Amino acid sequence: MEESVTTTDLAQAAAGGDEDAWNSLVERYLPLVRSVIRWHGLSGQDAEDISQILWLRLVEHLEDIREPQALPGWIKTTTRNECIQLLKRARRTVPVGASVEPQPAPPAAQELDEDLLRAERHQALLAALAELPDHQRNLLTLLAVDPPLSYAEISRRLGIRIGSIGPTRARALSRLRESPAMAALIETSTEVTS
Fold first, then answer.
1. Would residue 53 count as lying in a domain?
2. Does the residue 76 lie in any domain?
3. pLDDT at residue 103, rounded to an integer
4. What whole-number distance in Å separates Cα of residue 75 and Cα of residue 127?
5. Within 10 A of 117 (CB to CB), how many other CB atoms are there?
6. If you write DSSP's letter for every residue of the chain in order, what string do you get?
7. 163 CB burial (10 A radius; 0-12, 13-18, 19+)
């Protein structure tokens, strides 16, 4: 599936049984799942188990999700809950006589928050960019390259006047801010800080 396919489109297609859409959803959000699992200090078989449980939960509830743009928040929360449940069960079942080796401390809460926010922002930005018209998406992409391109070079590559770059950029950024994907991210971020 193309990168420009929105989360809403993927979720609806996957709920309808489209295997390619499901695979694209997994590929798109697997880094987020892994970062939550890592933050909880889980690895190996435990990490695999949590990942499998998360995808099973998503299959079970995909049709129930009313706002597909909020899917990253749902995935993050569900993965975190599954990690916490696994850790609670593990604390209750320490074998008698087993040597308990100290486990490395998970990263600080601030590091997790930064990792999760970075992953969520990236996904939301990709989804929002996919909703832009091609000319606006192409312009924003060229404006973000490193090292920066001159307006003259951008004008040449896109075949537009230099004077139209600024106003087009302003309209594209405004559309990005108003996109459902970014609105869902902002709403999720507000709920977390409340």
1. yes
2. yes
3. 60
4. 16
5. 15
6. --TTS-HHHHHHHHHTT-HHHHHHHHHHHHHHHHHHHHHTT--HHHHHHHHHHHHHHHHHHGGG-S-GGGHHHHHHHHHHHHHHHHHHHHHH-PPTT---PPPPPPPPHHHHHHHHHHHHHHHHHHHHHHHS-HHHHHHHHHHT-SSPPPHHHHHHHHT--GGGHHHHHHHHHHHHHHSHHHHHHHHHHHHHH-
7. exposed
- 88/110 Cα distance (integer angstroms): 22
pLDDT at 1: 47
Name 64's Cβ contacts closer than 8 Å, sequence gap at least 6.
Answer: none
What's the CA gap between 2 and 75, in Å, rounded?
21
14 within a domain of the structure (yes/no): yes
Q: Which two tokens stand for residue 96?
A: 């008698």
Q: What is the mean pLDDT of each run of 10 residues along the chain (194 residues)?
A: 70 85 87 87 86 86 78 86 85 58 58 69 76 87 85 91 91 85 65 54
Range of the domain at 13: 1-94
Looking at the domain assignment, is residue 119 inside a domain? no
User: For residue 48, what is the domain's CATH number?
Assistant: 1.10.1740.10
Quick check: bond before 147 cis, omega within 30? Answer: yes
CA angle 30, 33, 37 (to 5 degrees): 135
d(CA 83, CA 65): 21
- Counting the structural domains of the chain, the total is 1
